[in-house]
Amino acid sequence: MEIIEKNTLQVAQQWIKSVSAPLENENSGIKKYQFDKENILNLLIQAQNRHELNENAPVQVMAEMIMDNYYGAVVTWCINKGKECTLIESVEHYCLYGLKPMINIYKERL
Amino acid sequence: MEIIEKNTLQVAQQWIKSVSAPLENENSGIKKYQFDKENILNLLIQAQNRHELNENAPVQVMAEMIMDNYYGAVVTWCINKGKECTLIESVEHYCLYGLKPMINIYKERL
After folding, report:
1. What is the ipTM score, two decimals?
2. Is pLDDT of A83 > 90?
C-alpha cells in the first residue's frame, strides 16, 4: 500500500512538473485542463436542465473554481510529498465545506 | 504591461515546476506552503477571537481549502500560459462564489 501511494505521488509530481511550465508549442497540459473542465461544466449544465440548480447559477465560474480546487489539492499534495493530508481527505473536505455551501445557494427555487 | 505579465507568469511557472517534485532532502516548497497556511489560519483564529466566526468553524480545514484554491488558481494559470482567466479574476471569483458562502455558514450566532 505504501509503495502504491509513493508511486502515485511520484506520477502526480512528474505530471505537475511537466505541465506547469509549458513551452510555446506545448499544449498537453491545456488539453487535459480543458477536458476536465468541460466534464465538470457538463455536469453542472445537466443539473440546471434537471432544475436541480437554478438558472442563475454561474456554471462557467463554478466549473473554474472546482478546477482550481481539484488541481490545487493535487499540487499541495505534491509539494508536501503526500504528507499533511491525503488526497482523498482533501476532496472529502472540499465536498463538505467548500462545494456544498457554494452549490446550496443555487438550489433554491427562483 | 504585457512584458510585466509575461515575466510574472514565467516566475510563477518556474516556481511551481521547482517545488512540485521536491527531492527527499528539499523542503523550500513545504516551508512556503506552511508559512502561507499559518498566515491564513491566524486570520481565521483572529476572526474567531473577535466573534466574527463562531467557535464551530473548522478553521484548520478552512485554511487548507483556501490554500488549495490559492495554489490551484496559480497552477491552472501557469498551465494555461496566463490565458483563460487572469489570476486577479480567479481570486475575485473565489472570494465571491467560494469563500463567502463557506464563511457565511459560521458567521451566525450559535
Report:
1. 0.89
2. no
